[in-house]
Amino acid sequence: MPPTHNSSKDELDSAEAEVRPVRGRPRSEDSHEAVLGAVLDILDKEGYGALTIEGVARHAGVGKQTIYRWWKSKPELVLEAYANHSASKLPMPDKGDVTADLESFFCGACKRLNDISGPTMRGLMADAVYDPEFLEILRDVLIAKRRDALMQVLARGVARGQLRADADLVVMTDTLLGAVWYRLLVQHAKLDSRFAKQLVNDCLNGYAPRGR
Amino acid sequence: MPPTHNSSKDELDSAEAEVRPVRGRPRSEDSHEAVLGAVLDILDKEGYGALTIEGVARHAGVGKQTIYRWWKSKPELVLEAYANHSASKLPMPDKGDVTADLESFFCGACKRLNDISGPTMRGLMADAVYDPEFLEILRDVLIAKRRDALMQVLARGVARGQLRADADLVVMTDTLLGAVWYRLLVQHAKLDSRFAKQLVNDCLNGYAPRGR
Amino acid sequence: MPPTHNSSKDELDSAEAEVRPVRGRPRSEDSHEAVLGAVLDILDKEGYGALTIEGVARHAGVGKQTIYRWWKSKPELVLEAYANHSASKLPMPDKGDVTADLESFFCGACKRLNDISGPTMRGLMADAVYDPEFLEILRDVLIAKRRDALMQVLARGVARGQLRADADLVVMTDTLLGAVWYRLLVQHAKLDSRFAKQLVNDCLNGYAPRGR
Amino acid sequence: MPPTHNSSKDELDSAEAEVRPVRGRPRSEDSHEAVLGAVLDILDKEGYGALTIEGVARHAGVGKQTIYRWWKSKPELVLEAYANHSASKLPMPDKGDVTADLESFFCGACKRLNDISGPTMRGLMADAVYDPEFLEILRDVLIAKRRDALMQVLARGVARGQLRADADLVVMTDTLLGAVWYRLLVQHAKLDSRFAKQLVNDCLNGYAPRGR
DNA sequence: GACTAACCGAGACGGTACGTCCCGTCTTAAG
DNA sequence: CTTAAGACGGGACGTACCGTCTCGGTTAGTC
Per-residue pLDDT tens for C39-50? Predict the structure, then answer.
């Protein structure tokens, strides 16, 4: 039996000490890295759709089994490679003004999505459609990270009295992130900072006429 | 060369006269319907991911070539089957009140997405990720239909003075539809009428405190 | 380098003193026996073709390396297990009559081949086809044993004047044993005592008309 | 369902008109020949053990499925290639003397077995050990052909009074062919014409002293 | 009524990737 | 120095579909 797939979730979200089995040859860090490296390489050069387990194995100089031993599926593999790589540096601006914070947050997001990040994110989401188990992981790792970051920004806004005290932050998060994902997926309009600012401001002020 | 794929777009959006070749055996309506029927059957029973051209041909008792002759790809095939089927009945409520109209619009949408519609929509979107050509079609057929319907509702709101005259309706549309798609794809929360109403109201009123 | 494979040959044919290394943990008799036991088990339950080193190790609760350390290949392993087990008891009848001796010899052989012995013998021979090194061992251990036994019977026949003095005993051996192997492998006819007797008598008397 | 594997048996043994299904693309003779050619090539250059379906497909420039479509297994594939190739030219000498006929028959057989024929025959027999279904085919195609040829020679000997009228020709066949197979498989002695002649003569005259 | 063109089903074709199995080697900690 | 455990690179397995192709057989005009 395989040693419990290191469902990237564990590795990423918690400090839990990846319990190495006492006996047997230990996992090769070289291979591990070679695989993740190959994934990023292929992701970059040929895109998410062209990435196959077989191709990764070939490119990494690794047996296929070695991949199947540690990752349940292609998207989990990509997720780890991608999450490890772009690990991170989610901006959590705190300038004292929720509008400025949000604009900063979404301008950054849009910028990143116009790099390699965009296609990969789309690919991961697409794969999650077919694979519920992976959706769970994607949600718990990648999506949750972004939601949490945003949520903190919003919470600070509420604390400062810059957002209504009774605002449903979950729905607000869905609205803001949803709009970005929607443009990312449908690709009917640009994801630029103009859009980011408009989105933030409209969302804060609403579309109904003010001050009636 | 095949006789111009009847890219469902044409068939659905315009009245353009499907140029029938002058001579030769005409297209078999039986086969046409058998194929679309098989697609819906499989979509329903086994899901979008398990749908293959080979399987459709088998299930419909039709040669593979017959499918490739008339449809460029799996997702286009599905799109026609699906669009023909759920053809339509997009609600375009007009009650004189933009809030009521929007609530009605999104409650209906959420309800439909909780039936068979949801998985198929997700599947179509997933395929669009891998196939840009199909994305174009999906966008122009299915997505645009919904956007246009919503846009009309919003335009009436503006006309009635219930929405700010300077509102960017495109961004507003992205925001509203994006939130729904986001929940549909990520599946972290229910798509129910509570959500629909909250979404509409928050979007109209904004999250910033009013009447400062 | 491994400690000289105890090519079963050595173990079986000679008394040569299995040179034990002076230091370090001694060979585990438990493991040794567990392996041989597993081999016989699998041989019996799943047949020769389904026997793999990996399977033996699993079944015996033993590391693969432990097998590779002591046996060069699957067939050598099987040979030791099998030879140890059916060790021996080759009948070497000596009733004073070569015909009777031979009939006894071959009736016994046929009987044994109709038990478990048959499939294993066929499997060993099959493996020997692919592995010349193993063929050598099979020939020197199992085959030679039988040839030698038969040869002695024949030699006694010559001594008694019951076989022609100028008979080529090697060819005779090939003829008798070959017929049995041939039926065992081709399986076009039964290996029963009727066959054994017919074989012996025809071989002794020849097929040409006598006493012209 | 595959179109009934052309179990080489049918093709070779009888005149039955390989009923081509009326519909669908017909079998490609080019591919068929390319595959058989590749088999013989590999058989010749790398030997029976190194022959894999994958390798044949690669070498023949053919999809794996095309092989699996028409042949059930590696040995059946080899059998057709080999039988088609060495199809054939089994000597059926008829010189009026059974001794001469048999010597001619077995000298020829030994000679052929010392060419490529030998290893392939051994390989086929080995595979038959693991695959009963194939054993049946091997027996009915290759083995039976040789048995029948020999049997005719023997029958003529009986007719001419050169063999005992009551001789059990089946056992005699087993004896003669068995001795050859035995040497072929065990490889403890040469398969040369000296052996062939000795075998034939001893078999005819018997090992018991004559003219008592 | 024959000809021609485009259709139809069937299904074979060269490919690519799948996920599994086992090979024989290697690298641990424990005994 | 052996042991059990088990990861490693490799390679073949047999299967599923891909999109293309090639048959014999329809089913309409057009000549």
Answer: 988 887 887 778
Encoded tokens for A147: 């939601």
What single letter denotes the amino acid at residue D54?
A: E
The residue count for chain C = 212
Do the beta carbons of residue C138 and residue C74 sit within 8 Å? no
C-alpha span between C135 and C141 (Å, rounded): 10
Closest protein residue to E17 using CA and C1' atoms? A54
C-beta of residue A166 within 8 angstroms of C-beta of residue B201: no
CA of C21: nearest nucleotide by C1' is F1
8-state DSSP, D72: S
Instruction: Say which DSSP state B116 is in.
Output: T
Per-residue pLDDT tens over the stretch B160-211: 999 998 889 999 999 999 999 999 999 999 999 999 999 999 999 998 887 6
Q: List protein-proximal bases of chain F (any atom < 7 A from a CB).
A: 1-30
> Average pLDDT over chain B, rounded to whole?
85
pLDDT in the model for residue D19:
63
d(CA D198, CA C178): 15
**How far, in Å, CA of A63 to CA of B83, rounded?**
44
Helix ranges, chain C (H): 8-13, 29-45, 53-60, 64-70, 74-85, 98-114, 117-130, 132-138, 144-159, 169-186, 193-205
- Tell if the CB–CB gap between D171 and C195 is shorter than 8 Å: yes
Distance (Å, whole) CA C157 – CA D209: 11
Q: Which of D78, D138, D182 to mutate to test the interface with C (most CBs of C within 10 A)?
A: D182
Total residue count of chain D as it appears in this document: 212
Q: Whose structure tokens read 């022959």?
A: D51
Nearest to B199 by CA among B63, B99, B58: B99
How far is the C-alpha of D126 from the C-alpha of D90, rounded, in Å? 22
Using N-to-C axis directions, what is the helix angle for C53-60 and C74-85, rounded to 10°? 50
Q: Residue with structure tokens 């499997």?
A: C123
Question: Is C31 near strand E, with its CB below 7 A from some atom of it?
Answer: no
Protein residue with the closest CA to the C1' atom of nucleotide E5: B24
| Cβ–Cβ under 8 Å, residues C103 and C197 | yes
What beta strand segments (E) does chain A contain?
none
Which nucleotide C1' is nearest C27 CA?
Answer: F2
Cβ contacts of residue D119 below 8 Å, gap of 6+?
D43, D47, D48
Radius of gyration of chain C from Cα atoms? 20
A195 contacts in chain B (CB < 8 Å): 171
CB-based touch B/C (3+ pairs, under 8 A):
no
B71 touches strand E (CB under 7 A): no
Task: Please report residues of A whose CB lies closer than 8 A to that of B164.
Answer: 207-210
- Residue keyed to tokens 């590749």: D38
Q: How far apart are CA A70 and CA A5, in angstroms?
A: 5
* Residue A161 to residue B209: CA distance in whole angstroms: 8
Domains of chain B, CATH where assigned? 25-70 (1.10.10.60), 85-205 (1.10.357.10)
- Give D163's contacts in chain C (Cβ within 8 Å): 207-209
CA-CA distance, A60 to A54, in Å (whole number)?
Answer: 10
Identify residue A124 by its one-letter amino acid code: L
Are B51 and A129 in contact by the 8 Å Cβ rule? The answer is no
Token pair listed for D173: 């066949």
Full pLDDT tens readout for chain A, 212 residues: 444 455 444 444 444 445 666 788 999 999 999 999 999 999 888 888 899 999 999 999 999 999 999 999 999 999 899 877 765 667 788 888 999 999 999 999 999 899 868 888 898 898 888 888 888 888 988 899 899 999 999 999 999 999 999 899 999 999 999 999 999 999 999 999 999 999 999 999 988 887 64
